[in-house]
Design brief:
Radius of gyration: 20 Å
Strand content: under 5%
Largest sheet: none
Length: about 120
């Protein structure tokens, strides 16, 4: 049995910051893909592109009507990509908190009792 102590508040804060920055970076890249795609493929202006990318990325749905097949294909692929990215980002962001909670509740010891 490997026994590890819970991280100090300072180290935990660093871990939360690291995971938060990674999540923000992932969301920034994802919204950038959407903005450029809606602008160049969907022929929307920059503001509408940001608006559509933000709405799709958060699961709210598209706003502007897209007229070309390529724009509709992009929007479909981006919607699927956004769903996966949003859920993954939430999981990455909350991972340190879930890990700490598992340590506080000593969940790792429960598995060893069953064996």
């Amino acid at each position: 049995m490997k026994k590890k102590n819970i991280l100090s508040p300072k180290k935990f804060a660093k871990r939360v910051l690291k995971y938060s920055l990674f999540s923000i970076g992932l969301l920034t890249i994802s919204i950038g893909i959407g903005v450029f795609g809606y602008h160049y493929i969907g022929n929307l202006n920059w503001i509408d592109s940001i608006y559509n990318a933000s709405m799709i990325l958060t699961g709210m749905g598209p706003v502007n009507e897209l007229n070309t097949d390529s724009a509709k294909l992009f929007a479909s692929i981006y919607a699927i990509f956004s769903g996966v990215i949003f859920l993954s980002t939430v999981a990455i962001f909350f991972a340190p908190f879930a890990h700490r909670l598992m340590h506080l509740l000593k969940i790792d010891e429960i598995d060893e009792i069953d064996e």
